Amino acid sequence: MKEAGIDLSYNVPQNVVQFLSHSFDLVITVCDQARETCPVFFSGKVLKRLHIGFEDPAAVSGTEEEILAVFRKVRDEIKSAFYNYYLKSIKDSDH
């Protein structure tokens, strides 16, 4: 992420379970197995659910460079997919 200009050095992973009772306008799941393994947000607490699946780079094996290449590819795919979703579904509705 640092290569892409994003500093994650102060971020700490959080378990999604702590957010299950919160209300959200939109929840997007991203891993292909998320539909089967991701906790379900309570009905009525999420206005819209969307799944955009990506390969799990942590499941890839190979040399360090091969694995890093997959992490970079997925990072870039996520950026592109989320930006395209924003342009098509959010940007114009903000006005």
Q: In brief, what are we looking at here?
A:
This protein has 95 residues and is an alpha+beta fold. 33% of the residues lie in helices and 18% in strands.
Structure description:
The chain is α+β, with helices and mostly antiparallel strands. It is 33% helix and 18% strand. The chain has two helices and two strands, in the order E-H-E-H. It has helices at residues 34-37, 64-90, and strands at 24-31, 46-54. A two-stranded parallel ribbon has the order 1-2.
Layout of helices and strands, plus pairs?
Layout: E1 24-31, H1 34-37, E2 46-54, H2 64-90
Parallel strand pairs: 1-2
SSE arrangement, N to C: EHEH
- Most strands sheet: 2 strands, parallel
| Average pLDDT reading | 86
Query: What proportion of the residues form beta strands (DSSP E)?
Result: 15-25%
Q: How many β-strand runs?
A: 2
Shape: globular
What is the helix tally? 2
The strands making up the biggest β-sheet line up spatially as 1-2
The multimeric state of the shown protein is: single chain
Rg over CA atoms, rounded to whole Å, is 16 Å
Please mark out the parts with pLDDT under 50 across 5 or more consecutive residues, or reply none: none
Helices and strands: which structural class?
alpha+beta
Distance between the termini: 31 Å
Helix fraction, binned, reads 25-40%
